[in-house]
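Hi there, hope your week has been kind to you so far. Do you reckon you could talk me through the fold, stretch by stretch? I've dropped the whole record in just underneath, so have a look:
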Amino acid sequence: MARILVADDEPPMRMVIRHACERAGHEVHEAIDAPTAVVAYERLKPDLLVIDIGMPGGGGRFVLNTLRFGGTKRIAPVLVVTGSMAGTVDEIRQALAVEAVILKPFRMVELARVVQTLLGGPAKPGGPNPGAPPPTR
């Protein structure tokens, strides 16, 4: 079981992410804005940070910069869940220097797969296996 911090200002989005992560057996904590996310991260020391870029209080960039340059020794893997940035997933990932990006709207199975990959564990039985070759027809 991993500890996951979900930082997003939209309650329905937090609920969807929480549901997917708890269903996979993880402990989930929530933050509704950037300042709350920084405080929660420093207190919880999560194994994964799932963050939206467009949040009140400075947004996801503020959170990432504060953690990176504010004395946090090690930042957990970061999954950005956003619908507010231009560019491809790879361009956004590189620009923010994060491990993964999912664009809104997304499918729950996609979220679960990326979370599991970032936490370093195998995919759940019956679910997608990110390391497996594509199925042949």
